[in-house]
Design brief:
Blueprint (H helix, E strand, L loop, with lengths): L1 E3 L5 E4 L4 E4 L2 E2 L6 E2 L6 E7 L9 E6 L3 E4 L1 H4 L5 E10 L5 E13 L6
Parallel strand pairs: 2-10
Antiparallel strand pairs: 1-2, 3-8, 4-5, 6-7, 6-9, 9-10
Length: 112
């Protein structure tokens, strides 16, 4: 089960499928930004922000919906992690659209 909270915190049952839609808002006018075909969004999940490598990294191009597959989290221990999302525009500009936020992998009873 996927839960997303107002503060961008996420809870996901380990090994579940999730589709996480990211809404990008323009800081200047508060209008929603439409992801363009040449734009890339990257979601990174780490145990701690200072860790050098992501435990889960998902990159999508021209879309704002991340598909988290069961294999992405099935090997992670239950517990608390951090994640962020970066937008790289087709022009090469980089924006952190979700700053480091909590990502909790919750317990499951049924395992595959």
């Amino acid at each position: 089960m996927l839960k997303v909270f107002d503060d961008n915190s996420v809870e996901l049952t380990r090994g579940d499928t999730a589709r996480l839609k990211v809404t990008v808002t323009n800081d200047n006018d508060g209008e929603e930004y439409t992801v363009q075909s040449g734009d890339t969004l990257t979601l990174s999940i780490k145990k701690k922000t200072k860790d050098s490598e992501a435990l889960v990294a998902k990159t999508i191009k021209g879309s704002s919906i991340f598909h988290i597959e069961p294999k992405d989290t099935s090997g992670l221990p239950f517990g608390s992690y951090v994640y962020d999302v970066e937008l790289t525009t087709a022009e090469g500009d980089v924006y952190t659209v979700i700053t480091p936020s909590n990502f909790k992998i919750t317990e499951e009873v049924t395992t595959r």
